[in-house]
Amino acid sequence: MLSNLKPQPADKILQLMQFYREDPRETKIDLGVGVYKDATGHTPIMRAIKAAEKQLWDEETTKSYTALSGDPAFGAAMKAMVLGDSVDHARVGAIATPGGTGAVRQALELAKLVDPETTVWTSNPTWPNHVSIIKFMKLNHAEYAYFDEASCTVDFDAMMDSLKALKAGDVVLLHGCCHNPTGANLTLEQYGLVADLIAEKGATALVDIAYQGFGDGLEEDAAATRLLASKLPELLVASSCSKNFGIYRERTGCLMAISETAEQTPVTQGTLNYLNRQNYSFPPDHGARLVSMILTDEALKADWMAELEEVRLGMLGLRQQLADELKRLTNSDRFDFIARHRGMFSRIGASPEEVLKMREDFGIYMVGDSRMNIAGLNAETVPLLAAAIAKTCK
Ligand code: PLP
Ligand code: TYF
């Protein structure tokens, strides 16, 4: 059997991590994989996570199975954090999943269960794993226009134009905030217009929200998801705790499925539980438990929010510094979009050749589509990056 296997294509982002490690230059700068790093290049464990882990070590009395949905307290805490009071929580089914990726996968499993012929729409571009999972599951895939390469902003007219081709039953995958890989986001008003179109066409929206708290703030970043939840009869939401709680390797995510009525919820919840059982049985608990401990304890939550805010403001400061430096060096406002983008990433509109040249000449590692991780910078490396961009990008 195994001798029949063919090599699979490598993940370009993870491959870049390897290239970076192998580069001996001391001045190299890692702007690749989407992991938060502080000014020293370290990915810290958040204070509230450490505190919750200590408390858990003291208080946890069993490691027995939880429930197929995961701990219901986690689902409740995630509904509150992501959805707020935009919908009656009695309409929301929720399962813990292995990371936000698990939540996306389970959302697509749900769509496939209803209709294996369904078409899933993603933005062009999107996080590459969206497309590879859709294809791996043999679902139909379509793309909607999203990014204007010249201005590095959202081309909203083109987006709406492509979504006119939506059919009833299609699934539209939207980034809830902090679009990956571009950093360019819809305004709340535009999300509202997208929601109206999705409703008119009888399609289903699937929101992937992996960076809540990294853009404009914890509440602000949830605003689009909440608007969609309040406007649409049904909604799927895949939420990740990897970045905003800094618990990447714990694999903590949540899929929420909002039914039109509370009467539907038991069947929706039962189906989510069933999907967990078919795919991996009980979901991981450790990260989910830390998250629900933090979100339900006033002091832990306040400390977590304060640290998350430091992280967010740090990235915004780096954005502004980089945009200012590029304005000075290029004597133009061409790169002003970097300060207007939100989240960890900005796609800066450099060609693959220019990206490679910056890697070879300056040891700057960004993804081939010219996506850079803002958190890979610090106040000292921003001028080096700005100089490299100004020298390399036509
Ligand atoms: N969705 C997007 C757009 C992402 O960038 C990520 C990032 O890692 C995820 C989902 C899921 O992350 P994880 O599975 O590590 O929680
Ligand atoms: O886009 C990123 O960099 C993050 C991390 O297969 C990531 O979302 C990258 C690739 C991958 C899984 C996670």
Automatic annotation (TrEMBL):
CDD domains in the record: AAT_like
Cofactor(s) essential for the protein: pyridoxal 5'-phosphate
Record has Transferase as a keyword: yes
Keywords: Aminotransferase, Pyridoxal phosphate, Transferase
CC annotations in GO: cytosol
Keyword field contains Transmembrane helix: no
Pfam families linked: Aminotran_1_2 (PF00155)
BP GO terms, sorted: L-phenylalanine biosynthetic process from chorismate via phenylpyruvate
Residue stretches making up the Aminotransferase class I/classII large domain: 27-389
GO molecular function ontology, one term from the record: pyridoxal phosphate binding
The protein's assembly and partners: Homodimer.
Family according to the record: Belongs to the class-I pyridoxal-phosphate-dependent aminotransferase family.
PANTHER family: ASPARTATE AMINOTRANSFERASE, ASPARTATE AMINOTRANSFERASE, MITOCHONDRIAL
Protein name from the UniProt record: Aromatic amino acid aminotransferase
Organism: Celeribacter ethanolicus
